[in-house]
Design brief:
By secondary structure, the protein is α+β, with helices and mostly antiparallel strands. Among the domains are: 35-65 and 312-380, Beta Barrel (conserved putative lor/sdh protein from methanococcus maripaludis s2 fold), CATH 2.40.420; 69-80 and 229-307, Efflux pump adaptor protein, beta barrel domain (Elongation Factor Tu (Ef-tu), domain 3); 119-181, Helix Hairpins, CATH 1.10.287.470. It has helices at residues 4-33, 47-52, 116-147, 153-179, and strands at residues 42-46, 56-59, 61-65, 68-76, 82-85, 91-94, 103-104, 109-114, 195-199, 204-209, 216-217, 224-227, 233-239, 251-256, 259-271, 280-287, 301-307, 311-317, 322-324, 327-337, 340-353, 357-361, 371-375.
Length: 381
């Protein structure tokens, strides 16, 4: 009966010894692929682990990189490409058959406006013009009589005033007729008209139709809005914090929602000088290839990237950068040891992106001879 406790104690000792050996074995295995004991900046890596995990070395290099500002914008037509069609004189709208989106050519008749007042305007012009020859002859006769002291100076002055007044009225009526596209030089009683033609001043398309046939259109009231696509630009919205970074000449790459795979290019042309109530500023950019303007529709929404001025910086392959929480690191080869390497963890601040590389900044002394772990580093941190 007294021997049983010894047997139980011996078995329990064997169990503890086995558990201790298992734990020690696990610790050794973890240490082989983990950080070097006693430091958080260096990692020991064997050659076998390097090959098994298919790791690769890469080099640091110095190049020019441009940061990008992501912005949104729209396709716009400048004010010189917009026209509001109005009339100088009121009248009834006739022959209006346009619809929104319809193309128009410069000089094409858009609609006509009819008003009896147009006849009275032409009548006044023809009557005054017909009197002008008589008044001129009377002025010249009174001038001769006054010089020979046959007639009084008063008669001469009255004849001169009548002639100059009629001449001024003819000039005024000529210009008024020109406003409604009537040529005073060719106007005769037989060619008088009560309708005037309203023609398109630009090549473009109808953006909005306001008037309707039969409506009386008051003077200066809008009947149509036309737009020309001869020149299209991109209007970008830039936040106040980035305003000082952008200037004319910088490259802009943008895409539209309907063609996200097609990247178009423009250049900053004008940067706004004032900030609106939303703390934003407008940036105007013109397309580099004018032929691409035909692909854009005014009002279209855009996603764009403004490329800032390039800066020289150290850079690594983007695969080299390992993100741990909110911080970024790279692993560099500090030294070679027997059967492996000692790696050093370097904190970096990622910068502008290239096609395959990314600029970095760091307080550590690095140069082009430094070897950087390109692949497999994520498994070590």
């Amino acid at each position: 009966m007294k021997s049983c406790p010894k047997v139980l104690l011996s078995a329990f000792s064997v169990f503890l010894l086995t558990l201790s050996c298992t734990n020690n074995k696990k610790e050794v295995t973890d240490l082989e692929v983990g950080e070097v004991a006693g430091t958080h900046a260096e990692i020991q890596l064997t050659e076998q682990q390097f090959q098994t995990m298919k790791m690769e070395w890469g080099e640091l290099f110095t190049g020019e990189f441009s940061e990008e500002i992501l912005v949104q914008g729209t396709v716009q037509i400048p004010v010189e490409g917009m026209r509001e069609i109005t009339t100088y004189f009121g009248g009834y709208v006739q022959d209006l058959k346009l619809i929104e989106g319809q193309e128009v050519r410069k000089g094409e008749v858009l609609f006509t406006v009819e008003n009896p007042d147009f006849l009275r305007l032409q009548q006044d012009f023809l009557e005054t013009k017909s009197q002008l020859a008589y008044l001129k002859a009377d002025w010249e006769r009174q001038k001769t009589l006054a010089q020979e002291q046959i007639s009084s100076q008063k008669n001469f002055l009255k004849a001169a005033a009548d002639y100059e007044s009629a001449m001024a009225k003819v000039q005024s009526l000529t210009k008024q007729l020109a406003l409604i596209s009537i040529d005073g030089e060719t106007l005769t009683p037989a060619t008088m008209q009560s309708k005037i033609l309203i023609t398109s001043p630009i090549n473009g398309f109808v953006e909005e139709v306001v008037a309707v046939p039969g409506q009386f259109l008051p003077a200066a009231a809008k009947a149509l809005t036309l737009m020309s696509k001869d020149h299209i630009h991109v209007e970008l919205i830039l936040f106040e914090k980035d305003a000082s970074k952008v200037h004319p000449g910088q490259l802009v790459e943008f895409t539209s929602p309907d063609r996200p795979e097609e990247v178009l290019k423009a250049k900053v042309y004008v940067v706004g000088k004032s900030i609106n109530s939303q703390r934003q500023i407008n940036v105007h950019a013109d397309l580099i290839d004018k032929k691409e303007e035909a692909q854009l529709t005014p009002g279209m929404f855009l996603q764009a990237r403004i490329q800032l001025d390039p800066q020289r910086s150290l850079a690594v392959s983007e695969e080299s950068i390992i993100e741990v929480g909110e911080e970024s690191f790279i692993l560099v080869q500090k030294s070679k040891i027997e059967g492996g390497f000692t790696l050093q963890k370097i904190k970096v601040i990622p910068g502008a992106k290239g096609k395959k590389y990314r600029a970095i900044s760091t307080i550590s002394a690095l140069d082009s001879t430094t070897l950087v772990l390109v692949k497999g580093g994520f498994n070590l941190l």
